[in-house]
Protein backbone atom coordinates (compact mmCIF):
# COMPACT_ATOMS: atom_id res chain seq x y z
CA UNK A 1 0.00 0.00 0.00
CA UNK A 2 2.83 2.35 0.80
CA UNK A 3 4.30 1.81 -2.65
CA UNK A 4 1.20 3.09 -4.45
CA UNK A 5 0.99 6.17 -2.20
CA UNK A 6 4.66 6.93 -2.83
CA UNK A 7 4.23 6.45 -6.59
CA UNK A 8 1.19 8.74 -6.68
CA UNK A 9 2.99 11.45 -4.71
CA UNK A 10 6.00 11.20 -6.96
CA UNK A 11 3.92 11.56 -10.14
CA UNK A 12 1.23 13.99 -8.95
CA UNK A 13 2.85 15.92 -6.15
CA UNK A 14 2.47 15.43 -2.42
CA UNK A 15 -0.21 18.14 -2.13
CA UNK A 16 -2.58 16.14 -4.33
CA UNK A 17 -2.32 12.86 -2.38
CA UNK A 18 -3.76 12.96 1.13
CA UNK A 19 -3.80 10.19 3.72
CA UNK A 20 -5.08 9.62 7.25
CA UNK A 21 -6.26 12.66 9.17
CA UNK A 22 -5.42 14.88 6.18
CA UNK A 23 -8.50 13.49 4.39
CA UNK A 24 -11.17 14.44 6.91
CA UNK A 25 -14.63 12.87 7.03
CA UNK A 26 -16.27 14.38 3.92
CA UNK A 27 -14.76 11.86 1.49
CA UNK A 28 -15.93 8.72 3.30
CA UNK A 29 -19.17 8.53 1.34
CA UNK A 30 -22.20 10.16 -0.22
CA UNK A 31 -25.45 11.51 1.22
CA UNK A 32 -26.85 8.02 1.70
CA UNK A 33 -25.04 8.09 5.04
CA UNK A 34 -23.64 4.59 4.48
CA UNK A 35 -19.99 5.58 3.98
CA UNK A 36 -18.19 5.40 7.31
CA UNK A 37 -14.68 4.18 6.45
CA UNK A 38 -11.73 6.43 5.73
CA UNK A 39 -10.18 5.56 2.35
CA UNK A 40 -6.59 4.50 1.90
CA UNK A 41 -5.91 7.87 0.25
CA UNK A 42 -7.59 10.81 -1.42
CA UNK A 43 -6.29 12.32 -4.64
CA UNK A 44 -7.49 15.60 -6.13
CA UNK A 45 -6.02 15.99 -9.62
CA UNK A 46 -6.16 19.23 -11.59
CA UNK A 47 -5.82 17.82 -15.13
CA UNK A 48 -6.92 14.89 -17.26
CA UNK A 49 -3.32 13.75 -17.62
CA UNK A 50 -3.07 13.49 -13.85
CA UNK A 51 -6.29 11.47 -13.68
CA UNK A 52 -4.90 9.14 -16.34
CA UNK A 53 -1.63 8.77 -14.45
CA UNK A 54 -3.44 7.97 -11.20
CA UNK A 55 -5.56 5.30 -12.88
CA UNK A 56 -2.57 3.74 -14.63
CA UNK A 57 -0.67 3.46 -11.36
CA UNK A 58 -3.67 2.09 -9.47
CA UNK A 59 -4.37 -0.44 -12.21
CA UNK A 60 -0.76 -1.65 -12.20
CA UNK A 61 -0.91 -2.06 -8.42
CA UNK A 62 -4.39 -3.60 -8.43
CA UNK A 63 -5.71 -0.92 -6.06
CA UNK A 64 -9.36 0.15 -6.22
CA UNK A 65 -10.09 3.69 -7.42
CA UNK A 66 -13.45 5.26 -6.53
CA UNK A 67 -14.47 8.47 -8.34
CA UNK A 68 -16.23 11.16 -6.31
CA UNK A 69 -18.15 14.19 -7.49
CA UNK A 70 -20.25 16.42 -5.26
CA UNK A 71 -21.10 13.44 -3.00
CA UNK A 72 -24.83 14.14 -3.26
CA UNK A 73 -25.72 10.59 -4.32
CA UNK A 74 -28.20 8.50 -2.34
CA UNK A 75 -27.20 4.95 -3.29
CA UNK A 76 -23.70 4.57 -1.81
CA UNK A 77 -22.05 4.82 -5.22
CA UNK A 78 -19.23 7.11 -4.03
CA UNK A 79 -18.30 5.17 -0.88
CA UNK A 80 -14.60 4.20 -1.17
CA UNK A 81 -13.98 1.71 1.64
CA UNK A 82 -10.76 1.18 3.62
CA UNK A 83 -8.55 -0.30 0.91
CA UNK A 84 -9.56 2.04 -1.92
CA UNK A 85 -8.31 5.38 -3.17
CA UNK A 86 -10.93 8.13 -3.51
CA UNK A 87 -10.47 10.25 -6.64
CA UNK A 88 -12.19 13.60 -6.23
CA UNK A 89 -12.97 15.60 -9.38
CA UNK A 90 -13.59 18.83 -7.43
CA UNK A 91 -10.41 20.55 -8.71
CA UNK A 92 -11.12 19.57 -12.31
CA UNK A 93 -13.86 22.18 -12.69
CA UNK A 94 -14.91 24.85 -15.16
CA UNK A 95 -16.91 25.63 -18.28
CA UNK A 96 -14.49 25.42 -21.19
CA UNK A 97 -16.75 26.62 -23.98
CA UNK A 98 -20.27 27.64 -24.89
CA UNK A 99 -20.62 27.24 -28.66
CA UNK A 100 -23.55 29.47 -29.60
CA UNK A 101 -23.57 28.30 -33.21
CA UNK A 102 -23.70 24.60 -32.33
CA UNK A 103 -25.89 25.19 -29.26
CA UNK A 104 -23.50 23.19 -27.06
CA UNK A 105 -21.46 23.54 -23.90
CA UNK A 106 -18.20 21.77 -23.05
CA UNK A 107 -17.76 21.33 -19.29
CA UNK A 108 -15.22 19.70 -17.01
CA UNK A 109 -16.61 16.86 -14.90
CA UNK A 110 -16.03 18.53 -11.53
CA UNK A 111 -18.14 21.58 -12.38
CA UNK A 112 -21.18 22.08 -10.12
CA UNK A 113 -24.40 21.74 -12.10
CA UNK A 114 -25.59 25.19 -11.04
CA UNK A 115 -22.38 26.76 -12.34
CA UNK A 116 -22.96 25.15 -15.73
CA UNK A 117 -26.61 26.26 -15.73
CA UNK A 118 -25.61 29.85 -14.99
CA UNK A 119 -22.98 29.88 -17.73
CA UNK A 120 -25.53 28.58 -20.23
CA UNK A 121 -28.07 31.20 -19.15
CA UNK A 122 -25.49 33.99 -19.47
CA UNK A 123 -25.04 32.96 -23.09
CA UNK A 124 -28.80 32.90 -23.71
CA UNK A 125 -29.30 29.13 -23.39
CA UNK A 126 -30.92 26.64 -21.07
CA UNK A 127 -29.11 23.59 -19.72
CA UNK A 128 -32.27 21.56 -18.99
CA UNK A 129 -30.74 19.13 -16.48
CA UNK A 130 -31.96 20.26 -13.06
CA UNK A 131 -32.19 18.75 -9.58
CA UNK A 132 -32.44 19.95 -6.03
CA UNK A 133 -28.74 19.45 -5.27
CA UNK A 134 -27.72 21.61 -8.25
CA UNK A 135 -25.46 23.79 -6.08
CA UNK A 136 -23.15 20.97 -5.05
CA UNK A 137 -23.80 18.06 -7.43
CA UNK A 138 -21.16 17.89 -10.17
CA UNK A 139 -21.94 17.32 -13.83
CA UNK A 140 -19.61 14.33 -14.07
CA UNK A 141 -21.59 12.56 -11.36
CA UNK A 142 -24.85 13.63 -12.98
CA UNK A 143 -23.85 11.95 -16.22
CA UNK A 144 -22.25 8.93 -14.54
CA UNK A 145 -25.58 8.23 -12.82
CA UNK A 146 -27.77 9.35 -15.75
CA UNK A 147 -29.47 11.87 -13.46
CA UNK A 148 -33.05 12.87 -14.04
CA UNK A 149 -34.73 15.64 -12.07
CA UNK A 150 -37.77 17.81 -12.56
CA UNK A 151 -37.62 18.47 -16.32
CA UNK A 152 -37.21 14.93 -17.65
CA UNK A 153 -40.77 14.91 -18.95
CA UNK A 154 -39.84 17.57 -21.50
CA UNK A 155 -36.11 17.24 -22.10
CA UNK A 156 -35.23 13.68 -21.10
CA UNK A 157 -32.66 12.20 -18.71
CA UNK A 158 -29.01 13.28 -18.69
CA UNK A 159 -28.38 10.73 -21.45
CA UNK A 160 -30.60 12.72 -23.82
CA UNK A 161 -28.58 15.90 -23.21
CA UNK A 162 -25.07 14.51 -23.78
CA UNK A 163 -23.53 14.75 -27.26
CA UNK A 164 -19.91 13.96 -26.44
CA UNK A 165 -17.70 12.64 -23.67
CA UNK A 166 -14.11 12.33 -22.63
CA UNK A 167 -13.44 9.31 -20.39
CA UNK A 168 -10.34 7.84 -18.76
CA UNK A 169 -10.31 4.04 -18.76
CA UNK A 170 -8.99 1.80 -16.00
CA UNK A 171 -5.52 1.48 -17.56
CA UNK A 172 -5.15 5.24 -17.99
CA UNK A 173 -6.19 5.39 -21.65
CA UNK A 174 -7.92 8.68 -22.45
CA UNK A 175 -10.93 8.15 -24.71
CA UNK A 176 -11.87 11.52 -26.24
CA UNK A 177 -14.93 12.14 -28.38
CA UNK A 178 -16.14 15.66 -27.72
CA UNK A 179 -18.76 15.42 -30.43
CA UNK A 180 -21.04 18.44 -30.99
CA UNK A 181 -23.29 16.90 -33.63
CA UNK A 182 -26.80 15.60 -33.00
CA UNK A 183 -26.40 13.07 -35.81
CA UNK A 184 -23.28 10.95 -35.69
CA UNK A 185 -23.57 7.27 -36.56
CA UNK A 186 -19.88 6.60 -37.21
CA UNK A 187 -19.69 3.24 -35.50
CA UNK A 188 -20.61 2.35 -31.92
CA UNK A 189 -21.86 5.20 -29.74
CA UNK A 190 -19.30 4.53 -27.02
CA UNK A 191 -20.43 7.35 -24.74
CA UNK A 192 -23.58 5.39 -23.93
CA UNK A 193 -21.46 2.76 -22.17
CA UNK A 194 -20.34 5.26 -19.57
CA UNK A 195 -23.54 7.27 -19.03
CA UNK A 196 -25.28 5.66 -16.08
CA UNK A 197 -22.45 3.19 -15.34
CA UNK A 198 -21.58 4.96 -12.04
CA UNK A 199 -17.84 5.07 -12.65
CA UNK A 200 -17.50 1.30 -12.96
CA UNK A 201 -16.35 1.34 -16.62
CA UNK A 202 -14.41 4.61 -16.82
CA UNK A 203 -14.11 8.04 -15.24
CA UNK A 204 -15.84 10.86 -17.09
CA UNK A 205 -13.64 13.97 -17.39
CA UNK A 206 -15.33 16.21 -19.99
CA UNK A 207 -18.90 16.49 -21.27
CA UNK A 208 -20.48 18.17 -24.28
CA UNK A 209 -24.06 19.10 -23.40
CA UNK A 210 -26.76 19.98 -25.88
CA UNK A 211 -28.33 23.32 -24.93
CA UNK A 212 -31.83 24.68 -25.58
CA UNK A 213 -33.18 28.22 -25.95
CA UNK A 214 -34.00 30.00 -22.72
CA UNK A 215 -37.77 30.04 -22.11
CA UNK A 216 -39.43 33.46 -22.26
CA UNK A 217 -42.32 32.57 -19.98
CA UNK A 218 -43.05 30.23 -17.10
CA UNK A 219 -46.52 29.47 -15.79
CA UNK A 220 -47.02 27.41 -12.63
CA UNK A 221 -50.20 26.04 -11.05
CA UNK A 222 -51.08 23.84 -8.10
CA UNK A 223 -54.10 21.68 -8.81
CA UNK A 224 -56.33 19.14 -7.07
CA UNK A 225 -57.68 16.15 -8.98
CA UNK A 226 -60.38 13.64 -8.02
CA UNK A 227 -58.48 10.47 -8.97
CA UNK A 228 -55.53 9.01 -10.85
CA UNK A 229 -57.27 8.49 -14.23
CA UNK A 230 -58.01 12.23 -14.21
CA UNK A 231 -54.32 12.91 -13.59
CA UNK A 232 -53.33 10.84 -16.63
CA UNK A 233 -55.89 12.56 -18.85
CA UNK A 234 -54.71 15.96 -17.56
CA UNK A 235 -51.17 15.05 -18.56
CA UNK A 236 -52.24 14.00 -22.05
CA UNK A 237 -54.12 17.26 -22.50
CA UNK A 238 -51.13 19.26 -21.31
CA UNK A 239 -48.99 17.48 -23.88
CA UNK A 240 -51.48 18.24 -26.64
CA UNK A 241 -52.65 21.75 -25.76
CA UNK A 242 -49.46 23.19 -24.25
CA UNK A 243 -46.90 21.27 -26.26
CA UNK A 244 -45.88 19.42 -23.11
CA UNK A 245 -45.34 20.66 -19.55
CA UNK A 246 -41.83 21.29 -18.27
CA UNK A 247 -42.81 19.73 -14.92
CA UNK A 248 -45.73 17.56 -13.82
CA UNK A 249 -45.35 16.67 -10.14
CA UNK A 250 -48.01 14.47 -8.52
CA UNK A 251 -48.57 14.13 -4.77
CA UNK A 252 -50.78 11.60 -3.01
CA UNK A 253 -52.89 12.79 -0.03
CA UNK A 254 -50.67 11.15 2.61
CA UNK A 255 -47.73 13.18 1.32
CA UNK A 256 -49.68 16.43 0.91
CA UNK A 257 -51.37 16.36 4.32
CA UNK A 258 -48.18 15.67 6.25
CA UNK A 259 -46.03 18.20 4.39
CA UNK A 260 -48.52 21.09 4.41
CA UNK A 261 -49.33 20.58 8.10
CA UNK A 262 -45.67 20.75 9.08
CA UNK A 263 -44.37 24.15 10.28
CA UNK A 264 -41.30 23.97 8.02
CA UNK A 265 -43.47 24.19 4.88
CA UNK A 266 -45.47 27.33 5.72
CA UNK A 267 -47.80 26.86 2.75
CA UNK A 268 -51.01 25.00 1.89
CA UNK A 269 -52.04 25.96 -1.65
CA UNK A 270 -55.29 23.94 -1.54
CA UNK A 271 -57.44 22.18 1.09
CA UNK A 272 -56.15 18.74 2.21
CA UNK A 273 -59.27 16.73 1.32
CA UNK A 274 -58.75 16.03 -2.39
CA UNK A 275 -57.89 12.74 -4.08
CA UNK A 276 -54.54 13.82 -5.60
CA UNK A 277 -52.51 16.95 -6.15
CA UNK A 278 -50.38 18.03 -9.09
CA UNK A 279 -47.94 20.88 -9.65
CA UNK A 280 -47.84 21.81 -13.33
CA UNK A 281 -45.17 24.04 -14.85
CA UNK A 282 -45.20 25.18 -18.47
CA UNK A 283 -42.32 27.04 -20.09
CA UNK A 284 -42.95 28.77 -23.40
CA UNK A 285 -41.56 31.26 -25.86
CA UNK A 286 -44.38 33.85 -25.98
CA UNK A 287 -44.43 35.90 -22.81
CA UNK A 288 -47.59 37.74 -23.88
CA UNK A 289 -49.76 34.81 -24.95
CA UNK A 290 -48.50 31.89 -22.84
CA UNK A 291 -50.14 32.83 -19.50
CA UNK A 292 -53.57 33.18 -21.11
CA UNK A 293 -53.08 29.90 -22.92
CA UNK A 294 -52.18 28.24 -19.63
CA UNK A 295 -55.29 29.60 -17.90
CA UNK A 296 -57.47 28.44 -20.79
CA UNK A 297 -56.03 24.94 -20.46
CA UNK A 298 -56.77 24.87 -16.72
CA UNK A 299 -60.26 26.28 -17.26
CA UNK A 300 -61.09 23.50 -19.70
CA UNK A 301 -59.78 20.90 -17.26
CA UNK A 302 -61.98 22.35 -14.51
CA UNK A 303 -65.06 22.33 -16.72
CA UNK A 304 -64.50 18.71 -17.66
CA UNK A 305 -63.90 17.58 -14.08
CA UNK A 306 -60.26 16.58 -14.56
CA UNK A 307 -59.32 18.94 -11.74
CA UNK A 308 -61.48 20.02 -8.82
CA UNK A 309 -59.58 23.16 -7.90
CA UNK A 310 -56.49 25.09 -8.97
CA UNK A 311 -54.41 28.09 -8.00
CA UNK A 312 -51.98 29.83 -10.35
CA UNK A 313 -48.78 31.38 -9.05
CA UNK A 314 -48.84 35.14 -9.60
CA UNK A 315 -45.29 35.90 -8.52
CA UNK A 316 -41.97 34.20 -7.80
CA UNK A 317 -42.72 33.82 -4.10
CA UNK A 318 -45.84 31.78 -4.85
CA UNK A 319 -43.87 29.65 -7.31
CA UNK A 320 -41.33 28.93 -4.57
CA UNK A 321 -44.15 28.16 -2.11
CA UNK A 322 -45.60 25.60 -4.53
CA UNK A 323 -42.24 23.94 -5.05
CA UNK A 324 -41.52 23.94 -1.31
CA UNK A 325 -44.59 21.75 -0.86
CA UNK A 326 -43.47 19.41 -3.63
CA UNK A 327 -39.89 19.19 -2.31
CA UNK A 328 -41.35 17.74 0.89
CA UNK A 329 -38.45 18.71 3.14
CA UNK A 330 -40.74 18.22 6.15
CA UNK A 331 -40.39 14.48 5.62
CA UNK A 332 -36.72 14.72 6.56
CA UNK A 333 -37.81 15.34 10.15
CA UNK A 334 -39.26 11.81 10.44
CA UNK A 335 -37.26 9.17 12.35
CA UNK A 336 -35.83 6.09 10.62
CA UNK A 337 -36.70 7.58 7.22
CA UNK A 338 -36.13 5.32 4.22
CA UNK A 339 -36.32 6.94 0.76
CA UNK A 340 -37.10 5.10 -2.47
CA UNK A 341 -36.74 6.15 -6.09
CA UNK A 342 -38.51 3.70 -8.39
CA UNK A 343 -40.16 3.55 -11.80
CA UNK A 344 -43.42 1.89 -12.75
CA UNK A 345 -45.46 1.65 -15.95
CA UNK A 346 -47.38 4.93 -15.87
CA UNK A 347 -50.84 3.37 -15.93
CA UNK A 348 -50.06 1.20 -12.88
CA UNK A 349 -48.50 3.76 -10.55
CA UNK A 350 -51.63 4.40 -8.49
CA UNK A 351 -52.31 0.67 -8.12
CA UNK A 352 -48.71 0.19 -7.04
CA UNK A 353 -48.99 2.99 -4.46
CA UNK A 354 -52.12 1.44 -3.00
CA UNK A 355 -50.58 -2.06 -2.87
CA UNK A 356 -47.30 -0.82 -1.41
CA UNK A 357 -49.06 1.27 1.23
CA UNK A 358 -51.28 -1.66 2.22
CA UNK A 359 -48.28 -3.98 2.62
CA UNK A 360 -46.29 -1.46 4.62
CA UNK A 361 -49.11 -0.68 7.04
CA UNK A 362 -49.98 -4.36 7.39
CA UNK A 363 -46.40 -5.04 8.48
CA UNK A 364 -46.12 -1.89 10.59
CA UNK A 365 -49.71 -0.94 11.59
CA UNK A 366 -50.93 2.59 10.90
CA UNK A 367 -50.49 5.04 13.73
CA UNK A 368 -48.88 8.36 14.63
CA UNK A 369 -45.42 6.84 14.17
CA UNK A 370 -46.09 5.13 10.81
CA UNK A 371 -45.84 7.11 7.60
CA UNK A 372 -45.78 6.08 3.95
CA UNK A 373 -45.76 9.06 1.60
CA UNK A 374 -45.92 8.83 -2.21
CA UNK A 375 -45.05 11.52 -4.76
CA UNK A 376 -43.23 11.77 -8.06
CA UNK A 377 -42.75 13.11 -11.55
CA UNK A 378 -45.20 10.53 -12.99
CA UNK A 379 -44.95 11.79 -16.58
CA UNK A 380 -41.57 10.03 -16.75
CA UNK A 381 -42.83 7.00 -14.73
CA UNK A 382 -40.84 8.03 -11.64
CA UNK A 383 -42.33 7.58 -8.16
CA UNK A 384 -40.68 8.53 -4.86
CA UNK A 385 -41.64 6.82 -1.60
CA UNK A 386 -40.77 7.97 1.90
CA UNK A 387 -41.27 5.42 4.67
CA UNK A 388 -40.97 6.00 8.41
CA UNK A 389 -42.13 3.14 10.61
CA UNK A 390 -41.36 1.92 14.16
CA UNK A 391 -39.17 -1.11 13.64
CA UNK A 392 -39.65 -4.12 15.86
CA UNK A 393 -36.75 -6.05 17.40
CA UNK A 394 -34.63 -7.61 14.67
CA UNK A 395 -36.06 -5.39 11.95
CA UNK A 396 -34.61 -2.40 10.16
CA UNK A 397 -34.24 -0.58 6.87
CA UNK A 398 -33.47 -3.83 5.08
CA UNK A 399 -36.93 -5.16 5.91
CA UNK A 400 -38.53 -2.07 4.37
CA UNK A 401 -36.29 -2.44 1.29
CA UNK A 402 -37.31 -6.08 0.85
CA UNK A 403 -41.02 -5.25 0.98
CA UNK A 404 -40.93 -2.24 -1.33
CA UNK A 405 -38.60 -3.73 -3.96
CA UNK A 406 -40.55 -7.00 -4.04
CA UNK A 407 -43.67 -4.97 -4.82
CA UNK A 408 -41.79 -3.08 -7.55
CA UNK A 409 -40.77 -6.43 -9.05
CA UNK A 410 -44.38 -7.67 -8.96
CA UNK A 411 -45.50 -4.57 -10.88
CA UNK A 412 -42.67 -5.00 -13.45
CA UNK A 413 -41.01 -1.75 -12.49
CA UNK A 414 -37.43 -0.59 -11.91
CA UNK A 415 -35.77 -0.46 -8.51
CA UNK A 416 -33.92 2.68 -9.62
CA UNK A 417 -35.45 5.52 -11.58
CA UNK A 418 -32.75 8.17 -11.29
CA UNK A 419 -30.54 7.62 -8.23
CA UNK A 420 -28.48 4.73 -9.56
CA UNK A 421 -27.74 1.34 -8.01
CA UNK A 422 -24.54 1.95 -6.03
CA UNK A 423 -24.28 -0.46 -3.13
CA UNK A 424 -27.72 0.02 -1.59
CA UNK A 425 -29.68 -1.44 -4.52
CA UNK A 426 -27.15 -3.95 -5.78
CA UNK A 427 -28.89 -6.92 -4.13
CA UNK A 428 -32.14 -5.94 -5.86
CA UNK A 429 -30.83 -5.39 -9.39
CA UNK A 430 -32.22 -8.80 -10.36
CA UNK A 431 -35.72 -7.56 -9.53
CA UNK A 432 -35.54 -5.34 -12.62
CA UNK A 433 -32.89 -6.94 -14.86
CA UNK A 434 -32.79 -10.48 -16.21
CA UNK A 435 -29.87 -12.86 -15.54
CA UNK A 436 -28.87 -12.49 -19.21
CA UNK A 437 -28.75 -8.69 -18.92
CA UNK A 438 -26.67 -8.81 -15.76
CA UNK A 439 -24.30 -11.29 -17.40
CA UNK A 440 -23.74 -8.87 -20.30
CA UNK A 441 -23.07 -6.04 -17.84
CA UNK A 442 -20.41 -8.18 -16.17
CA UNK A 443 -18.83 -9.01 -19.53
CA UNK A 444 -18.57 -5.30 -20.34
CA UNK A 445 -17.02 -4.66 -16.93
CA UNK A 446 -14.47 -7.44 -17.46
CA UNK A 447 -13.58 -6.13 -20.92
CA UNK A 448 -13.03 -2.50 -19.90
CA UNK A 449 -11.75 -3.07 -16.37
CA UNK A 450 -10.19 -6.56 -16.26
CA UNK A 451 -8.49 -6.00 -12.90
CA UNK A 452 -11.72 -4.68 -11.36
CA UNK A 453 -10.23 -1.50 -9.92
CA UNK A 454 -12.96 0.97 -10.96
CA UNK A 455 -15.53 1.54 -8.21
CA UNK A 456 -15.63 -2.14 -7.25
CA UNK A 457 -18.70 -3.57 -5.49
CA UNK A 458 -21.05 -1.08 -7.13
CA UNK A 459 -23.94 -1.79 -9.53
CA UNK A 460 -23.08 -5.43 -10.39
Provide a quick synopsis of the model.
With 460 residues, the chain is α+β, with helices and mostly antiparallel strands. It has helices at 2-12, 48-61, 113-122, 139-144, 152-155, 158-161, 191-194, 228-241, 253-261, 290-303, 316-327, 349-363, 397-410, 435-448; strands at residues 17-18, 41-43, 65-68, 85-88, 95-99, 104-108, 125-126, 162-168, 174-177, 203-210, 212-213, 217-225, 247-251, 276-284, 309-312, 338-343, 371-376, 382-388.
| Structure summary, number of beta strands | 18
The CATH class name of the domain at 95-213 reads Alpha Beta
**Structural class designation:** alpha+beta
Instruction: Note the overall shape.
Output: globular
CATH architecture of the domain at 95-213: 2-Layer Sandwich
Q: How many separate helices?
A: 14
Query: Could you list the spans in which at least 5 consecutive residues all have pLDDT below 50?
Result: none
Amount of helix:
25-40%
Radius of gyration equals 23 Å
User: What is the rounded distance between the termini?
Assistant: 26 Å
Query: Per CATH, what is the topology of the domain at 95-213?
Result: Uridine Diphospho-n-acetylenolpyruvylglucosamine Reductase, domain 3
Query: Biggest sheet, open or closed, and with what strands and sense?
Result: 7 strands, antiparallel
The average pLDDT score comes to: 95
**Strand-residue fraction?**
15-25%
Biggest sheet strand order reads 15-12-14-13-17-18-16
Amino acid sequence: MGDIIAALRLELGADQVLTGAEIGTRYRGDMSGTGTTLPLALIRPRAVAEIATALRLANEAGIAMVPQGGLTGLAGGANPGAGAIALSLERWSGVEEVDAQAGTMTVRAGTPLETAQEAAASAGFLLPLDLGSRGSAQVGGNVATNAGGNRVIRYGMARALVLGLEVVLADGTVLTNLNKMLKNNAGFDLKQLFIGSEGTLGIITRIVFRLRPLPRSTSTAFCAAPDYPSILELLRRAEGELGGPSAFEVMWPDFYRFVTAHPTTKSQPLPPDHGLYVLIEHQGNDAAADPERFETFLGGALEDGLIADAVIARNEKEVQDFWRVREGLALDTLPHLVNFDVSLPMGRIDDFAAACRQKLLARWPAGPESHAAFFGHIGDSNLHICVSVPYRAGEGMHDVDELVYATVRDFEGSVSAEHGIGTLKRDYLGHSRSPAEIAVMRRLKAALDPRGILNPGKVI
